[in-house]
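Re: [ENG-882] Designed sequences occasionally contain unexpected residues at chain ends

Forwarding the minimal case from QA. Structure tokens:
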């Protein structure tokens, strides 16, 4: 079946068409209208500005997508992000999806944004997920460990108590004057840095639960800059501080994830979200899975599927469709706080 995906939860307007067949998903086409340049000016996303941009981008983007075929392709369903995210941004996607589903007389599936990231590693992948599976979601707004017994079965076993891992990258980048979004800037600066240059905490590493906390690490970076009078404009200082910060974030994420995977005896470890674009995190996870979790399949998304895309939303929509995990279109509403739990 062919599914049109729509994603407008934050600062990217995205649409995509996928083919779902025999439990597998293949991207046919995906488009993203990024607002990154607009939000870089304010150093973060201003919700009203984001929503206005979605309104002007969404229909032209759908037209461009469908214009890639000489004849309008057959579309069997529409999948849309209904939450979590910015309310006014989500609303643009949800209302557009409802209108299109009504006009084309096709089913509408609501997808949780986190679930989209969770299925991003299944795009263009031929092997099915073996259950039980553990998913680590690391994005700008979320850091969560989710246990899955099957498609659509989600149990939250750990989450951040405060800031998300991506937020920690973004805020520390801001402190070092590295710009927005911070993750790519910090990981670039960290390439030439010394991970042992600055001693930073590993929050909640020794606690026996699967929760995270990154706000203390962010504060520790701030105090390191202040107390040591660091000249962050010096590329060497920024490199070392970036490498030390990144190492702290990566260590906590990897340790707690491996521990959870062992405890729940999972067969697959899935990772999704913007932060898994980070090469240090990818390498550390791959190495630890090889060493400590023999036989466990690690599923990392291709780099092009780590940011917010509509391909991942359409993919998650396909698996929801397969498990009949759907509700009536009249009940589908933008829900900024939608929690992906059983
Ligand atoms: O999943 P995503 O695109 O949007 C949300 O749903 O939040 O994640 C965005 C986050 C940002 O915090 C960004 O700084 C971070 O992912 N990010 C990275 C890297 N690329 C993006 N963090 C670390 N290293 C990267 N290479
Ligand atoms: Zn996201």
């Amino acid at each position: 079946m062919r599914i049109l995906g729509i994603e407008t939860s934050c600062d990217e307007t995205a649409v995509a068409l996928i083919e779902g067949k025999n439990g597998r998903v293949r991207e046919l086409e995906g488009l993203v209208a990024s607002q990154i340049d607009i939000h870089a000016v304010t150093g973060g996303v201003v919700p009203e500005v984001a929503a206005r941009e979605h309104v002007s981008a969404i229909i032209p983007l759908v037209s461009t997508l469908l214009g890639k075929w000489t004849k309008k392709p057959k579309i069997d369903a529409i999948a849309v992000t209904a939450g979590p995210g910015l309310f006014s941004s989500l609303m643009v996607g949800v209302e557009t999806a409802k209108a299109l589903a009504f006009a084309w007389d096709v089913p509408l599936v609501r997808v949780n944004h986190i679930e989209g990231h969770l299925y991003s590693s299944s795009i263009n992948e031929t092997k099915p997920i073996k259950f039980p599976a553990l998913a680590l979601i690391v994005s700008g707004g979320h850091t969560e460990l989710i246990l899955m017994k099957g498609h659509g079965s989600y149990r939250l076993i750990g989450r951040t108590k405060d800031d998300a891992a991506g937020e920690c990258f973004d805020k520390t980048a801001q402190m070092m004057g590295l710009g927005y979004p911070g993750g790519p800037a910090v990981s670039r600066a960290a390439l030439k840095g010394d991970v042992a240059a600055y001693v930073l905490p590993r929050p909640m590493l020794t606690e026996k639960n699967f929760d995270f906390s990154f706000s203390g690490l962010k504060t520790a970076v701030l105090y390191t800059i202040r107390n040591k009078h660091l000249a962050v404009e010096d590329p060497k200082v920024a490199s070392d501080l970036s490498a030390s910060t990144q190492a702290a974030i990566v260590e906590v994420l990897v340790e707690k994830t491996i521990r959870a995977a062992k405890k729940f005896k999972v067969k697959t470890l899935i990772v999704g979200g913007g932060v898994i674009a980070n090469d240090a995190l990818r390498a550390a996870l791959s190495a630890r899975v090889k060493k400590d979790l023999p036989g466990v399949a690690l599923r990392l998304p291709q780099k092009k599927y780590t940011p917010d895309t509509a391909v991942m939303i359409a993919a998650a929509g396909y698996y929801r469709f397969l498990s009949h995990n759907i509700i009536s279109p009249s009940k589908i509403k933008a829900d900024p706080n939608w929690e992906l739990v059983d």
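QA comment: On inspection the terminal residues look reasonable. Residues 12 and 34 are 5 Å apart (CA to CA). Proposing we downgrade this to a documentation issue.
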